[in-house]
Request: fold
Amino acid sequence: MGYPRQQQEHHRNSMDIIVTLSALNECAGEMFRQPHNQDRYIAPCPLRIPILRDSSSRETSLSSEGDQSRSSRIQLTFKQGPRNIVRGYTFGRDPRICDVYLPKSSISNIHFAITFNDDGQLSLVDTSSQGTWVSYNGQRSLHPRHYFTWLLPSNDRIEVDIGINDPIRFALLVPIRESRSTDYGSSLTKYLGNRTSADPSLTHLNLSSQETTRRPSRAPSPRRRPWYYQGRELGRGTYGKVYTARDVTTCTWYAAKEFFGAGWQREVRIMKGLSHVSSLCIAINLAQRSQGAYRTLYRYFR
Reply:
């Protein structure tokens, strides 16, 4: 079932758009079409439409392929803010508190929220019992993540899977904006200001905090430890290869050195012998990947 009034929603001023969720399977489309979601719902277009652009200033274009217009979509905007600005735009099984209703048994009452962190970066925050998968350019972690935060940059292809037994799968289309996007900046500043001045009684979930992914008092579990997706290869040699890797919670870039065989043991011996290792390695981590290979991470200055 579609909603005719929403058929023209792709003509909105793009400066008002925060993110668009585009269904990638029928389960997601069914969830998006729920009557509860109609004010944010955009029905599939029968014909391919061009990428949305701001004709007056050419400040913005959507980082999506035109084919996405043929999917059921949910669009989050500043104009139609969340029910609870402290939580952000919430998605889950409880229609009384969620902005987007997802009536599926494996979905938590509030499964995740899309919000901004204190630096104004768009984020997805999991608050569920089952966890959430977020993939970047086709890469995702081995396990779904619980109480985890992912930043949502506009220059990556981001897809989300939630639920089990026919999961809900959708793409996140974040508008690409140039530095001159003053209208968007003003809307974001107003949003963050309103959140700061919100009723303190609404802050009990504290979804905007990224501390949910960092537990310094103890080693994080596999489903909460930092996760990095692989970028371009920088080089390779006898003992391993080096490529860029990005922390999905902070968007910080690292140079990751992945070792062949036992090459990581040689690297550790060398590092232990360096008195200036702290200045060379601003951030270093020895991690075991799912394939069984070890790698070290160094802060990478692009």
Summary: The two ends are 48 Å apart (CA to CA).
